[in-house]
Each structure stands twice: as structure tokens, then as C-alpha cells.
Amino acid sequence: MLDARLLRSDPAAVAANLARRGFQLDVERFRALEERRKLAQVAADEFRAARNAHAKNVGKAKAQGQDIAGLLAEGEALGRKLEGLEKDLAAVQAESDDLMLGLPNLLHESVPDGRDESANVEVRRWGTPREFEWQPLDHVAIGERLADTAMDFEAAGRISGARFVVLKGGLARLHRALIQYMLDLHTGRHGYTEIYAPYLVARSSLVGTGQLPKFEADLFKVTSGEAEFFLIPTAEVPVTNLARDSILEAATLPRRYAAHTPCFRSEAGSYGKDTRGMIRQHQFEKVELVHVCKPEDSYAELELLVGNAEQVLQGLGLPYRVVALCAGDIGFSSARTYDIEVWLPGQQKYREISSCSNCEAFQARRMQARWRNPATNKPEPVHTLNGSGLAVGRTLVAVLENYQQGDGSVAIPPALRNYMDGAEVIKG
Q1: Is residue 141 located within the same domain as residue 72?
Q2: Does the annotation mark 355 as catalytic?
Q3: Active site residue 352
Q4: Which of 352, 372, 380, 417 is catalytic?
Q5: Which of 10, 167, 220, 301 satisfies CB 3.0 to 4.6 Å to 171 for a cystine?
């Protein structure tokens, strides 16, 4: 959520920033709504004060033995009037809240201009794409050549429908090895605290991290009687909400968390995109990294977060590049985002495998996540960051395509062999 004080004091500047995203803020609607809110607040406050003063008069009259029947009737009338004014105030406040919750984050000044991904700016590359002596296959064709249909989309379709996969044997184990490798790297070398978090969350948690109310169509909702839950689209949701409704002491910051969870996305807006293979699934695994820190540290934390995610790919020997997302391609809650894109020989292109974002105070305001600033001794919003470290399914795809062999087998990256009982290859 944006800083309401900034929006009230300089809505034109906020509108100009949001326009870089292609988002049009209706300044006149906001000003009119704000004026209605002020008038409703003043009216409710005035009647509340009048009711309280009247209650004191009733008490004095009663103490003096006076007939208070008329005063009680007058007090009831004031109460009914106040109740109506408070309902009016609640209605305009709800409209104001809806407007605020629909506004994306302000962009950091360093975010490149641009309308779509074509304007993203490459920051650096690591590794050299492998040259093959044959036309490299994509991961679907590789999976089909492995023993016992190790990557089975047909079986998954019978079980659940499109955009699911069943992994078997060596591929299932390689998938698990990647998860263990990522967690061990982040908790052991990088010092993250591992988190096991719920996979079902309340609506309020998704409002806190910015997925709701705007992106409900992208989520899977589960109901049981009157209870409502959502399957998490990413571990960012439950892990970031660990700071919800809290005041954190400065000495405990930064807090850095790593969590492996399944992720569930309806992919409502991706009809026709990546229908082949494991790139875009309804259910996939991810190791997520979340940082909670002081505001002055958040951009240093963003660079650290990106670097930690990069080291997964470096350890696996997978070529990649880092790009800074432009204004028109950046996520709703983010102030600045780097994408890490891994090289896929089967597609002959770089594809996103991690998105690392600094949300600044945007999520913290929605969650009431604060820290106590020693300089003022007052609670202030923390800054929150998140990024994949990495998306497991896409990392599996990258390993299969980059380590494919001419005989149909797949070499296992050296970093993963300890997790595979020393095996060096998955055979076709």
C-alpha cells in the first residue's frame, strides 16, 4: 500500500510515477473521495463529542435527582444519529481502502522506462552456452527418451488435466536433489533461516503481500463450510506474513528466510503460453528467499538476494543472465526487480528462473509490519524483499537441456551427485 500521506499531499507526483507503469491514477476521484472522507470524519467526531458531553450532563442531572427522561430520549436520538454517521464514514472509508489496495507500488527512480519486456535492460551474463554436435532437444523430448516415461504428461492429464506432470524414477530423485541442494546452499553458506510454512492461507495474508484483491483470478480458492483459504502461489505469502502485525527490534534485522513449498497458480492470464512441458504449470516447487530489513538497507539486501540466487546456477554450471525489469514489466508490489534468466538450449533462449524484488514498505503497510527506529523510538514500516532461489521445475528443465547427452542420457551436475548416491548419469 502506498503512503497515504504522500498521496494526499502530492497526488500529481504519485500519478506521474504510476503512469510510468501504464497505470492511470484518477486524481480527481481520489480528491473527491478524500474530501468526502474528511467531511464524514468531522461529522462523526462532532456528534461523538456531543454524545459524550450529553452523557456527562445526564450523569450530573441524575446525581442531582432531576427527571432525566427527556435527556435520555435526547441521548438515544444522538446515538442513532451517530450510528448513521459512523456507517457513512465506514462506507466512504471502505471505498477509499478499495482504491488504495488497487494502486501498485511506486517505482524506484533507477527502474528503466519501457512498456514491456522488450525494454528490460541486461545487467550481466555468466557462463557460455554449450555448443552441441547435434540439434539439442527440449526437456519434453529428453524426458520422453528416458526410461519408463520419466516425465509423464499423459498420466498427469488423466489424473488432473493440463499443466501438470508426473516425474518418475531418476527424474523425481533429481528434482528432490535440486531442492535439497538449494536449501543446503542458502541455509549453510548464505545463513538463511529455513522455514516450513502453511500451504493454505487466509485472504488477509494475500492482501498483505499484494496478490489480493487485484489478482484473485490467478489463485486457487478452497472452501470448507464457511472457512475460506487460498493455496499459496509462492512461499513469499506465508513467509513475508511472519512479520505481520509486529514491531521488530532493530537488533533483530535483517531477517532472511528460505522456504521450500509447492506453489499453485491458475495461470488465468496465460492462455496459449508455454503449453508444452514444465515451464508453466498449475503446481510446481520453489525455494523462496525472503528478506525483512531496515529501509536504509533494502537496496543492498536486493543485491545480496540476487547474488545468492545466482550462486545456485553457478554451482550447477548453468549459463544465465540478469536483467533489470522496465517500468511496464515490473510486478504490482515491487519497486525494483531483477529477473535471472537461465539458458535453455532446447529453446535457444534465456528464460526466467527467478524474479528478485524489493517491495520497500508497500507490503509492510498492508501487513502492519514495523520496526522500532532507535533514532525516533517510534514504529516505522520495514522493507520486504523476495526472490526465487530457485524455481525447482525450471531448474530441472535447465539441467536436462544443458546436460543432455547424444545417447539420450542426462549427465548429473557434480554439485548434485552427493544427493543422488554418487550417480553421474540418468540413462535413457
Answers
A1: no
A2: yes
A3: yes
A4: 352
A5: 167
351 given a catalytic annotation: no
Catalytic residue among 354, 355, 388, 409: 355
Nearest CA among 259, 205, 264, 260 for reference residue 232: 264
- Tell me the three-class secondary structure of 311-367, residue by residue: HHHHHHCCCEEEEECCCCCCCCCCCEEEEEEEEECCCCEEEEEEEEEECCCHHHHHH
Supply the CATH number for residue 259's domain: 3.30.930.10
Copy the grid coordinates of residue 11: 497526488
Q: Are residues 277 and 205 in the same domain?
A: yes
Task: Give the active site residue among 20, 173, 256, 265.
Answer: 265
52 and 161 within one domain: no
pLDDT higher than 70, residue 79 = yes
Q: For residue 46, give the CATH number of its domain.
A: 1.10.287.40
Give the residue numbers spanning the domain of 45: 26-101
CA dist., res. 200 & res. 235, Å (int) = 10
Catalytic-labelled residue, pool 8, 203, 280, 321: 280
Q: Are residues 179 and 49 in the same domain?
A: no
Q: Catalytic residue at 5?
A: no
Clarify whether 265 is annotated catalytic.
yes
**Could you read off the pLDDT of 277-305 as tens digits, one per residue?**
999 999 999 999 999 999 999 999 999 99
pTM strictly above 0.85: yes
Q: pLDDT tens across 378-387, in order?
A: 999 999 999 9
